[in-house]
Write a structure and sequence with these properties.
- There is one protein chain.
- This protein is mostly helical and about 220 residues long.
- The chain is built from twelve helices and no strands.
- Helix 3 runs antiparallel to helix 6.
- The N and C termini lie far apart (about 50 Å).
- The relative contact order is 0.11.
- The model has no long low-confidence stretch (mean pLDDT about 85).
């Protein structure tokens, strides 16, 4: 009898966490409604052609991604209190600052892309083109660091950017892990899009949060 009750509690606990993950993933998708509209009415194939509009639609990704990392951290430590409550709290906390961080991030990506095109086509200067390609790649790869820090610490945006860049260079294993995590999510989406869409955001957030726990603890020990 006791074992049956124990098994039932485990099953109910698993179902609660599964429902939490699906709920967070749904809220994350809804928080990125502008980019979903872009994909629906403009199309993925037009991202490069309509890059300024696409990046503008991506600005809400900043606070949404921070909320995703926050909630997955709570799930990791078993302190979740409800998908809506946790996500809303994380999204609204310093929401304006996160929007500014995301807007600046998207603007830099746009500037780097414009310079790549300029020095590749208009005024071909190979070293400058390579420089802006590197900067463009760094701006993309640093994304998890930016919003993971924003989700966990009260820092000014310039400090978030500085710390994120330092981690990008000094923690190559975490950087590589973040890239692999995104690759795994995209691969799952290619294989089983209908199922992956229910979990892809939450799974990505959980992987990033899990892999960066030691880095975050190290930052806290050094009184970030």
């Amino acid at each position: 009898m006791f074992s049956e009750v124990f098994q039932m509690e485990k099953i109910l606990g698993f179902c609660e966490k599964l429902w939490y993950v699906i709920g967070i993933n749904t809220l994350f998708l809804l928080s990125n409604f502008p980019v979903l509209l872009f994909f629906l009415f403009v199309g993925v194939s037009q991202v490069r052609t309509c890059l300024p509009l696409f990046l503008l639609c991506m600005v809400p990704m900043g606070p949404a991604l921070s909320a995703l990392f926050y909630t997955m951290n709570r799930l990791l430590f078993g302190t979740e209190s409800g998908a809506w409550r946790d996500f809303r709290k994380a999204y609204m906390d310093d929401c304006g600052q996160k929007y500014l961080l995301a807007a600046g991030h998207m603007f830099l990506i746009l500037i780097f892309e414009i310079n790549i095109e300029f020095f590749a086509v208009q005024v071909p200067i190979f070293p400058l083109m390579i420089l802006f390609v590197i900067l463009f790649a760094a701006a993309l790869v640093v994304t998890p660091n930016l919003y993971l820090l924003a989700s966990r610490y009260r820092m000014k945006n310039r400090d978030i950017v500085k710390t994120s860049l330092i981690l990008l260079v000094t923690r190559p294993a975490s950087t590589l892990g973040s890239m692999v995590s995104l690759g795994v999510i995209l691969m799952l989406f290619e294989l089983k899009a209908g199922t992956a869409v229910l979990f892809m955001g939450s799974l990505y957030g959980f992987l990033i949060t899990f892999m960066n726990q030691k880095v975050l603890l190290s930052l806290e020990e050094n009184h970030i």
